[in-house]
Every structure is written in structure tokens, then in C-alpha cells.
Amino acid sequence: xxxxxxxxxxxxxxxxxxxxxxxxxxxxxxxxxxxxxxxxxxxxxxxxxxxxxxxxxxxxxxxxxxxxxxxxxxxxxxxxxxxxxxxxxxxxxxxxxxxxxxxxxxxxxxxxxxxxxxxxxxxxxxxxxxxxxxxxxxxxxxxxxxxxxxxxxxxxxxxxxxxxxxxxxxxxxxxxxxxxxxxxxxxxxxxxxxxxxxxxxxxxxxxxxxxxxxxxxxxxxxxxxxxxxxxxxxxxxxxxxxxxxxxxxxxxxxxxxxxxxxxxxxxxxxxxxxxxxxxxxxxxxxxxxxxxxxxxxxxxxxxxxxxxxxxxxxxxxxxxxxxxxxxxxxxxxxxxxxxxxxxxxxxxxxxxxxxxxxxxxxxxxxxxxxxxxxxxxxxxxxxxxxxxxxxxxxxxxxxxxxxxxxxxxxxx
Length: 412
Prior knowledge:
Layout: H1 2-33, H2 36-42, H3 49-60, H4 63-73, H5 77-101, H6 105-119, H7 122-133, H8 137-161, H9 169-184, H10 202-205, H11 217-233, H12 236-246, H13 252-256, H14 259-276, H15 279-297, H16 302-330, H17 336-365, E1 367-368, E2 371-372, H18 374-395, H19 407-410
Antiparallel strand pairs: 1-2
């Protein structure tokens, strides 16, 4: 009985660490990312908004696979995360100072890009750390991942609470929290990477061998579906805040946090859904919610836009988080860091880059003489998600094979 209590206490302590890590990272990311659109606008930099948001897509082409390979092969994931968190804190501070002091569009964009290179891998590496420590990832990851959403909500609410929706104080708050993440990583166990020894080619050192995962059909369909889904999704954070403001809804950052309410609900429900539903129908439902959220946003009313923000949580969770769980279950342990990193590359790289630039161009096409046709803008995004839904339902087979990389990948 005493031993049982000891193991129970150890388990609770471990969960506290996992929850704390996701809470902190979620809040730190939100404090910078969510108010960025309004902050740029307030400092006369609204015209660089699509390029500024696209910086995360450019970064995702480079850093997630590189640092994912490092976490798989060369260093403890906790140490990799610690270094990235420190670099992110420094670059957030520099980028925020550049915006506040009016250094000009080019220096601001360069520093935002540098920040994105440092922050882009943090999410996938934190997910790898947490998934490796869960006993039953399909059932446990959703509730633990929900803590990141609580952190994101807390970060958004803090920004609005201090009146920093359009102020650089939001960026400085995020930088301070990244330093807390640095300190927190010292509490995480220094688990060594599974493939720390042996000579490796440059392809392996850069993590590019993860592309062999795409040889398996269902892997390929899941990767491509989440990437295509991310493209219209990228129109949410840059353009929902100005639409809220135009409809007379101030405190945009707080309103945007409503999407996290259903995100949390969906994450807690995800474990049960995975036991009862095929993955195909979970992702399909998420894509369906994605269509619906843009359709109701196209009503161009406060109620419609708020409903669309709320539906964002269900849509994001059922597609993106299910894909992370899929990879954790279908890929060998020594490849999971690179698998999660490849997902970040395709979603954050191709998806965000084409998404931010594409939705920015679509927004410009829907705007005439300073007046935006919001119904046309959101309906265009709804149609694109509907296309992704049709392609996914036709292409995904859901066979039980493919639990590991192809033979050529396993040999690495």
C-alpha cells in the first residue's frame, strides 16, 4: 500500500512537470503571436503584417527538422529546449524594441524572422518530451496538451488585462516568460537521445532523412492534409482581430482567446474519441468544423464572428492534435522527434508561408478603398477547407500497417 502511494506521488509530480511545461510555452507564444497584428498596426507597420506572420513559415523550413534531429541523436531534448527558449527570449526582446523605437520595416522584419527561427522548434520538441513520458499517449496527451491551451488563454488574457493589445508591453511580457521556461527546463530529466552515437551523414544531421516517412501512404495523407488545412487557418490570427475591431469589439486579444475554450473541451474529449472513432472520422470532423467556422464568420456580424472564433478550437484540435498522436503511435521511438519536426515543417513551413502570404493576397483582393468585403474573404477560406475535407476522405485508407518508417529509414 505504501509503495502504491509512492508511485502515485511520483506520477502526480511527473504530470505536474508536463503540465507546467505546456502552460508556460503556450502563454509565452500567445503573448507575442496573438497581439502582433494589432501591435504592428499601432506602430505604423500594418503593411508588413503578411510578411511578418510569414516569417514563422520561413523558419519552419529550417529549424524544426534541424533541432528535431539534434534532440533525436545528439543531445537531451530538455537541453535543446533550454537553449532555444533562451534564444527566443533574447530575440523577442530585440524585435519588440525595434517595433517600439521605430527602427523601420526591414530591421523589424529581420528580427521577427530571427525570433521565428528560435521559437519554431520549441513546440515540436516539447511535444516529443511529453509524449515520451506518457504511459498511454492516445488517452493522456489530449488533457495534458490542453494545459498549453490554458496557458495560451492566460497569455491572451494577461495582455488584455494590462492593456497591451496594441502595445509592445505584450512582447516584453512574452520575453520574461521565456526566461521562466529556461529555468523550468532544469526540472526536466536529462534523457539522452536514442541515437546519440555513431557517424551520421549531413542529411541525417539536418533531419532530412525524415522525408522517408512520406513513403507510407497514410503518413503522406496525414502530413499533406494538415499542411493544406494550415493554409486557410493562417488567415485567422492576422485578420480576425481587425474584423473584431471593425465590428466594435475591443479587447481583441481577449475575444480571440474564446477559441481556446472549445479547444480545451475537444482535447479532454479526444482520448475517448480515439477509442471509439476511426482517426479518419476525427480528422474529418475537425475539417468539417473548419468549414463551418469560416461560414459563420462570413455572416459579418458580432455573433457570427465570435461563433467562428469559438469553433476554431474544435477544428484545430481534431485535426492538428490528432495528427501528433497519430505520429507518436505509428512511428518508431527513435524517429519521433523528427516525425514531429517534419509535421512542424510542413504545417509551420509550407502551410504558414503559403497561408499568410496567400490569405494576405486574398485579403487585399477583398479590400477596396479601405473597405473589406468580409463575407467574401471568409467564404473563400471556407471553400478551401471544404476542398481539403473532400481530398482527405477520398485519400486516407486507415490501414493498420505502417507503424514504422520504411526499411530504408529504419536502417538509419
